[in-house]
Amino acid sequence: MITAGLDIIDRHFAAENAHDIEATLATYTDAIVWDDVTHPGSPFRGKRAVAEAYGGILQAIPDIHLRSVSRFECADHVIDESIATGHVMGEFAGVAGGGAPVSFRLLHVFDLRNGLIERENAWFDSAAVRRQVEAFHHR
Fold first, then answer.
1. What is the domain extent for residue 36?
2. Of 105, 124, 126, 139, which has the maximum CB count within 10 A?
3. What is d(CA 129, CA 103) in angstroms, rounded to the nearest whole number?
């Protein structure tokens, strides 16, 4: 059985994987707080700021894809562990990718309100990204 919380998270990741920023934004409340702990500009507040952050991610990794491997829902919160893959074309996690293929773990904590995402916290293994990009450049 899919609950409302898991349904909005499924819609959110489907929109992200389609690289559809507008559909991704539709899964958020107007008061969204998006906090990627590795991003120097975080937290981002409001849909406009979040759209700019997503645009930067898509410039850096235009073929990014997230695959959920574990998910837990409790009340108005969803925790999701995913594997993100893609090719780092621009700068990401403080390194210039130059087309390096990467695969890294990503943890999201979502706070929900009225069936939408009100807060999104993300942590990812930036050291793994750096190691893979450096290995790509030194092959």
1. 4-137
2. 124
3. 7
Contacts of 59 (CB under 8 A, 6+ apart): 89, 90
Q: CA torsion 112→56→84→68, rounded to 10°?
A: 20
Distance of alpha carbon 82 from alpha carbon 70, whole angstroms: 7
Collapsing DSSP to helix, strand or coil, 63 comes out as coil
Q: What is the pLDDT of residues 101-124, one digit of tens each?
A: 999 999 999 999 999 999 999 999
| Half-sphere exposure in the Cβ direction for 105 (13 Å, CA) | 7
- Whole-number Cα distances in Å, 19 to 14, 24, 104, 116, 122: 9, 8, 18, 19, 18
Q: How many structural domains does the chain have? A: 1
| CATH number for position 15 | 3.10.450.50
- Which tokens belong to 51? 């759209």
